[in-house]
């Protein structure tokens, strides 16, 4: 067990401080004076290119977490900082960044990359060098199989896609057409979804892959329409997902649309406009979730940024909290950080409520799923309560 304050004490600290999760991280006096020499983690992710919005969302989550951590003494008296290298979520650039990070002895843990293909291309470099890669948005089922330095607080698609199948089937859809990114992540997700849908009595009547750079989906949409599905399922990111929905609606395709959680972003509505109203998805974080841990984070985020957080803000925030626990426990040593991760139990988390790693899979135990729908250009709860599933 980790030597951290009890959950009861943490709750009292939250109430006293008003910035709840800040005090939960270390339980040290705010009068502590960090030394001048910072502790660094590295970030590989998109700051430019088609996925740049995700990088911007990450930075907001990182910065809030660091503000709270450093106000409470940092890491054993050292301020925590990060070096963010722009990969554009391109596997080739992610590999080059990985080499840069492993050569920089200041970097004690790495967070990222955004997409599983980019992260998995870089994983062998981190594994050989003995630097933990914490792929906090890497849901490919094989990601953590890259070695004992490859960890993820992201829900695996092996768990996420059955929840997406549940969402589709519970809405009464039995004949489904799937449009998926033709990448390792997209293909693996599609395969899991097809099996999960069949296990729930639904049939995938068409499955069409597309390249992430594709812009014209009209021919693909006509092919899946001709298979006579009663709903479309998108395994997409927010940018391509929004384009698919717009082109479906302008092409007269009015089928209900169920989308993977990777579309959950304000950009989905910005790019999709009125066309995306009615699209349903699920996510492991939603600011309208009444869970007290979530609401404390939402209040702190709104106070800093003057708008509500989304899932990718929360994922980055959570990953920073987890990294900070591992750094403090691991003794500011790369191997020590790796050794600390399986020892951490019930780390305060806005995504999982409490995060504990399975040392065998190197993923956080348990899955939380909140079902959402776009209503009048905003995300809203589809159901009254989050659905919980344990591994």
CATH architecture of the largest domain: 3-Layer(aba) Sandwich
Count of strand segments: 17
- Helix-strand topology string: HHEHEHEHEEHEHEHEHEHEHHHEEEEEEE
Let me know the CATH homologous superfamily of the largest domain: Response regulator
| Cα separation of the termini | 21 Å
CA-based shape: globular
**Broad CATH class of the largest domain:** Alpha Beta
Q: In DSSP terms, counting alpha (H) and pi (I) runs of 4 or more, how many helices?
A: 13
Percentage of residues in helical conformation: 40-55%
Mean pLDDT: 89
What is the fold-level CATH name, i.e. the topology of the largest domain?
Rossmann fold
Residue windows where pLDDT falls under 50 for at least 5 positions: 1-34, 384-391
User: How would you sum up the major sheet?
Assistant: 5 strands, parallel
How would you sum up this structure, described in words?
The chain is of the alpha/beta class and about 400 residues long. It has two domains: about 220 residues, Response regulator (Rossmann fold, 3-Layer(aba) Sandwich), CATH 3.40.50; about 150 residues, Response regulator (Rossmann fold), CATH 3.40.50.2300. Helix content is about 40%, strand content about 20%. It is built from 13 helices and 17 strands. The chain has a five-stranded parallel β-sheet, with helices on both faces. α2 crosses α3 and α12 crosses α13.
